[in-house]
Design brief:
The chain is mostly helical. Helices cover about 50% and strands about 10% of the residues.
């Protein structure tokens, strides 16, 4: 619907200016190019501020949706660029966890990522990329499906569903790397502290692969045989409470 010259779009009708839009009907008649300012019944109808979306009704949440969609699109583009670099410099370098000649490493604390600044940064700002790496490394799904799937479940209104699906996948990752957990624990971790849970999982997967990932997407991988020997040593020497078993240290 085109706005006649010299008029403003009130959101369903036209008037000479925004002040004339309500015509005694209050805020419900002040939409489109105009916005209602101050209390609902005693306010005034004024022109929208520069940069807002003309022709959209604030009351129906359209501007909020466009704002959210724009931020989501920008986040997706930035994350896609980072994922391309991460895939080439990290995921392709560390490979996947072998199913033979494999000794599981120790289970780490939920807040281990607080001691690992690079893991903390990657998890907070690019969680879907880290999840894609984890899922790919243990064979749950490929890197790109993992990234896209995690992004849609984390940065969209599907988040509540994402918590449940993330818990299912997290338990599957733990089962593959040999750490026992329950579905209830996985759900609680995903609901209450998903970044911490993802960071912990990332560190555990990296330990299994003998990988050390630093900032600027740099991966250093310990040879498989050496890493497996280290895993055996760590499990023999650590009882999970910071004490030693047979190492005499």
């Amino acid at each position: 619907m085109m706005t006649p010259p010299g008029n403003v779009n009130c959101g369903g009708h036209f008037a000479a200016n925004c002040a004339a839009c309500p015509a005694g009907n209050g805020a419900s008649w002040c939409n489109g190019d105009c916005v209602w300012v101050s209390p609902f019944d005693t306010g005034s109808c004024e022109m929208r501020a520069l940069g807002s979306m003309p022709g959209l009704d604030v009351a129906d949440g359209s501007t909020d949706f466009i704002y959210w969609a724009s931020l989501t699109a920008v986040s997706a583009i930035v994350m896609l660029l980072f994922a391309c670099v991460y895939k080439k410099r990290v995921v392709n370098e560390i490979g996947e966890l072998p199913r033979s000649m494999h000794f599981m490493s120790n289970e780490l604390s939920l807040f281990i990522c607080l001691k690992k600044p690079q893991t903390c940064l990657h998890t907070v700002f690019c969680m879907p990329v880290v999840l894609g790496k984890n899922y790919n490394a243990v064979g749950v799904m490929g890197f790109w499906p993992g990234c896209i799937f995690s992004f849609l479940l984390t940065y969209t209104p599907l988040w509540p569903l994402g918590v449940l699906i993330r818990a299912i996948l997290a338990k599957k990752v733990q089962d593959i790397i040999g750490h026992k957990t329950t579905m209830l624990k996985a759900c609680v971790n995903s609901l209450c502290c998903m970044p911490c849970d993802v960071g912990r999982e990332s560190e555990e997967v990296d330990d299994e692969l003998g990988a050390e990932i630093s900032c600027c997407c740099k991966a250093t991988v310990t040879p498989r045989f050496v890493n497996e020997v280290n895993d055996v040593k760590h499990r023999l020497c650590d009882d999970g409470f910071g004490k030693t078993r047979i190492c005499g240290q």
